Amino acid sequence: DIDCSLGLPRRREDIEGCIDDNDDQHDGGGKHQISLSGLLNFLDGLWSCCGDERIIIITTNHKDKLEPALLRPGRMDMHIHMSYLTMPGFRVLAANYLDIANDEHPLLFKEVESLIGTVNVIAAEVAELMLRSKDAETTLQEIIKLLKKGEIRRNEDKNG
User: Do 119 and 147 form a contact (C-beta atoms < 8 A)?
Assistant: First the structure.
């Protein structure tokens, strides 16, 4: 996760005068923190030496906070938004991981459908549950428990 692990600033203006842009820094906690300039040079170096033979994956929860120089074409040519799991996505996961369709367990799928729109859950959480067991019914019940827990948490947060 580029914004968290590298401690990148929001914008270049935020760091002017604070960090020597050419030197790598330590964050004070013993963790090594690379400068923005160092990261940009690293990425440019990868592309110049390897051309079209590299795929670099960078993740962030806050694309809007990243330095525009990092996002420019040539450094990041494709941007993919990964949303929370939706019912169509859930059906694909169920078919791929459990080899089932919603007509095989209609009541459980209906319950998942009623919960999935109200809870923010990522596909990886659900896929992890699906990997634990090949028994579709048990797995669907575990997923429903996960979604209900998320719904309870959401309601508690809302009610404060």
Answer: yes
